[in-house]
Amino acid sequence: MRIGLFATGGTIAMGASGAGPGVVPRHGADALAAGVTAAPGIAIEQYDLFAKPSASITLGDVQSIADRIEQGFAEGLDGAVVTHGTDTLEETAFTLSLMLARTRPVVITGAMRSAGEVGADGPANLNAAIAIAATPEAHGQGPLVFFGGEIHAAHLVRKVHSSRLHAFSSEPYGPIGQMTEGGVRIEMRALFRPATLRLGGSVPAVAILQAGLDLEPETIEAFAAAAIGALVVAGVGGGHVSSRAADALERLNQRIPVVITTRVGMGETLRASYGYPGSETDLARRGILNGGRWRPHQARILLQILLSNGVARDGIAASLAG
Which of the residues are catalytic? Predict the structure, then answer.
């Protein structure tokens, strides 16, 4: 069995620079593979894609990851593991779930502690990810994320702590499986089956604005002449803003698509529960698009991909509703 190891940087591939405090991207697939103890019959093939801190990874980079994985599958790889920084790992995992066909297993992992730290978690995470990528039960699941002993669906996982080892969660659903005593156990299957997307032309900027107490219209009006393709609003509660922000959002929505989501982190944006000014029904009446199931950063990614392909407002609304 052939498993491709696709290295993109992140803490798992960082070391001391010698020029000052903190670790920096230093090595790639060859150094990572040196720490792998694969089961008999599994051959690891190394692909050094790039070495970046994950906040600097672009959607174009993720498309490159997806294309290189698909090429590897066409050349006979049975599964793929992507090593990635944890800061934006959930976003790359989600984007890969939109870009990759659900054929062979793809597992994304990383580390919270670099290789030189006591208790470095990278080797254990990497070895487990390879075992998962070689597991028949991982087929057809779409990209998976492994971290801290747990297997997560790519569209559900999110980083919930900035520094602890157990940094990822899929609440309120929970992980779909786990590693126990070196064995892979997948208990559930992900039903998420999106249409496969890819980047089109240039990727437009899409901003996220987080609402809170009395979101000011002046804040929204700061985007009136901004060079952005759309605005995602992370609304309070079920997708709400202050009553005095609603008019400003309506005006902005006449120029660019405005999407209302919820900042809460769990649950969908509501559609028909509240009727006061600034509520989800009021915003819908004003033409604001509903973000549905998508968290703010997921809606941003989806918008960027759709806008790069010239998709109009009706098509964006249909995709958000999926």
Answer: 11
